[in-house]
Amino acid sequence: xxxxxxxxxxxxxxxxxxxxxxxxxxxxxxxxxxxxxxxxxxxxxxxxxxxxxxxxxxxxxxxxxxxxxxxxxxxxxxxxxxxxxxxxxxxxxxxxxxxxxxxxxxxxxxxxxxxxxxxxxxxxxxxxxxxxxxxxxxxxxxxxxxxxxxxxxxxxxxxxxxxxxxxxxxxxxxxxxxxxxxxxxxxxxxxxxxxxxxxxxxxxxxxxxxxxxxxxxxxxxxxxxxxxxxxxxxxxxxxxxxxxxxxxxxxxxxxxxxxxxxxxxxxxxxxxxxxxxxxxxxxxxxxxxxxxxxxxxxxxxxxxxxxxxxxxxxxxxxxxxxxxxxxxxxxxxxxxxxxxxxxxxxxxxxxxx
Length: 353
What we know:
The chain has helices spanning 5-17, 59-72, 97-101, 114-122, 130-136, 154-168, 172-181, 236-247, 254-260, 339-352, and strands spanning 26-31, 39-43, 53-54, 190-192, 205-206, 216-217, 231-234, 264-265, 286-287, 292-294, 302-309, 312-319, 325-332. It is of the alpha+beta class.
């Protein structure tokens, strides 16, 4: 680990120089020791304020933290049946909140549906409703019996969002503000609800929002509702502080963290290949509660999440055996920029230093 902030800054600048063009907005933040202040490097370098981005599926980690807090408050239990709140879901009496959190409930996703992507291109500013998401996914049946498999599911987290709102009587954005952002003083972190909420994001263009494939500015055209479970906007420094807080006891209890990091194996494509043929650095792909994990990474266990959608990419991981370091990378989508790759490159640089 670099012995000074200056050395860390030099390391981050060197890594970022090798990933994506210098004029594409991106930021990397590192918390070298639990509870310490983040060191951040952002581009373009002339910006007077750290850029803000969508974190996309990193939002699932916020949702999981919220549910652990609600359990600590006695408002629900992770082994409660979904049927208590949303009985119309097939097998809802056998689906637990824990299964939704670790993607073992069998709820189908919409990521591979042509109808979804056609709808995003056709009306990027007007998303599907909860009912439409339901009709296109789990109302057609489950992928497997609850608890008998693993399949990544955005609608599963949409159901969790609905449960949290029913349990508390408060909207999801307010729950994230009151129970996570405000206690941790994350002043630039929040759930986006309308296209107007994108105005303060770093500029980003996407070809996924137009029928002819012409890249358009995400900020003026994308309805955040196209992320069914909600989408957080934040900075790399604040996301790093959030994840660091999970592992340093400043947000959830030790028992809750133990539940969050209880892992199930993930049958990713190619996971039967030799280790050096798998996706970059992954050895034993696993999932906890709102956490991607690899207990056998080159740096010891790592926990975090990736996120990607129109215009933006995100990745944040915590490595307990590297002194409790947390690395977050957020940026606008661009050739040569892969947020997870940047995070793991930074971890590798820090380990070798």
